[in-house]
What we know:
The chain is of the alpha+beta class. The chain has a single domain, classed as Hypothetical protein yfbM fold (3-Layer(aba) Sandwich). 55% of the residues lie in helices and 12% in strands. The chain contains twelve helices and five strands. Strand 3 (141-146) and strand 4 form a beta hairpin. The longest helix has 23 residues, at 200-222. The radius of gyration is 17 Å and the shape is globular. The two termini are 23 Å apart. Mean pLDDT is 83; it is low at 1-33.
Amino acid sequence: MNISTGSFTSRFNKLLVAMGSLLLLGLANPSFAGMVWTARAIDPSLISAIKSDIQLLRDTLFGDPPKPFTEKLKKEGHVEFVAGANQELMNELKSWAEHRKTEVGDTEVDLDKAWHGIHYLLTGSAEPNGTLASKVIMGGEDIGPDQGYGPAQLLYPEEVKAIAQLLEQTNPETLRGRFKPKEMTRADVYPSVIWERDGDQALKYLLEDYKKLVAFYKRAAERRQAVIFAIS
């Protein structure tokens, strides 16, 4: 399977998620990072401020990438990280990502590109369908501007608690039985190329990230936190 879950890739995926905030500014094409899903658990007292302050919303979700990177992206429209190109900038981005990881701790979860497959396993649909299960990844209250693939979403503490209970009751074996590669490909579940091609490995990828999602919502519910998330 082409999607690695190694430690370096995991850290670099966080870089790409953070770069998604740059899409808001029209600095890069969405294909630069792909469609990735990231979420933060926040204290409810911050909800009003995050709703009214676009920059605070961006910083909470994505952080603030190093200035040399944003300036280069503004100027050139893209940044190459192949064959040692821009190694100094890459090192700076890695350092920033590690700092960001320490800063947010366990209040963040990054599903990379597994989000749509997990949504399908939870709901049986590629689209939102109004159920509690649909809220996990594709529901909530719209806040702020377009994050690349729609506005950020807000879930209030009572919704987070209900979702945490639902996820704890939905074990991986139940989701395994809902994994239908051909149907997922026909439904254009993103990234559609991997379901039939990678089969069990694609399912393993989804279930590994599902465990992270369950733990994230459980912690947020125990702390009586709200959750904001975006696809960028």
